[in-house]
Amino acid sequence: MFIHRLTLKNFRNYSEECVSFKNGVNVLTGANAQGKTNAAEAIFFLCTGYSPRANKDRLVIKNGCESAEIFGEATSQYGEVSVKVAFNKNDKKSIYINGMQVLKIGEILGNINSVFFNPAELKLVQESPDDRRRFLNVSLSQMSKTYFYALQRYNKILSQRNNLLKDPDAYIIRETLPVWDMQLTKEASKIIKARNEFLTELSPLAEEKHAFLSDGKETLKMRTESGYYGTEEEIAYSMYQDLKTGLERDIRLGFTSIGPHRDDIKFTLNGDDVRIYGSQGQQRTVALSLKLAETETFYKRFNEYPILILDDVLSELDKKRQRKLVGAVEKMQTIFTATHLDRTVFKNTPFTRLVVENEKIKEK
After folding, report:
1. Same-domain status, 125 and 199
2. pTM > 0.90: yes or no
3. 112, 42 in Cβ contact below 8 A?
4. Total domains present in the chain
5. What would the pLDDT profile of 231-266 be if each residue is shown by its tens digit?
């Protein structure tokens, strides 16, 4: 899969711009604040329907404008596909697939797939379980609309259950809760099973990628801390029993204390917890290994690679790891952003150079 044309209108610092990408390695260079990351962000937006850098669509609209559009044309093993996202300052969003408007946000998923990495992705390793769950949700939602819609339903039911737990009438809680618990565990089991399968695939690939990037000096291990395994039915039954057992605790706390919204992933290097004992360089390499493994998981499932977007990654690596990384990604469309081009890093890899300057992107 690769994107060959990206058109932006009033997106971030771009008034109107159209850029062509080639299959293989693309290097987007330019001074700081010229819009390299903005272009990379727009591609990911087309894949998922949201920005990886802003929690509201209106925040990416060019100053002084009321609306914005992103349009992309891509090629996959199934042929040509186009995706357009139009949105305004009221956060009203319209999505078009091959020129036809779709009404559900989830329908954008799976048309153009991408894996996005920039220095902020260190949160995946360094910070809270929320960031690790977000990684799982973004990746699995692109791979499966079923997962995305199960997650939507689960979050809605979870919110309703949590509201009920705050009801001052304990009798109403005990009488009503079993109905919500049946619905909650049904959706939770789909999410947990999909995550378990994904991590089973991802873990050995991440170990392999990390060994490659670290020259075999470090052994990465990762494990989920969900605590539920088996078929959907087995997971749903176990979780339902645990919800019954923990009812008094949940009433006391006023929220649901177990479920996929509490999942986490633990990473270790040579047996030590990376979050606690890893250097920033080690944490960065773990996060990058995960993203490279994610591309391989896409390939195993769909027989084609996603678009790999590596925003300002090379500056964070030494020269040796830069070369290893470039060699590892030349088999898929990869979009690097960088302030300058070091040709020695790409000397064994064909690439297309694009320069960003004055709101324009030109091939050089």
Report:
1. yes
2. yes
3. no
4. 2
5. 999 999 999 999 999 999 999 999 999 999 999 999
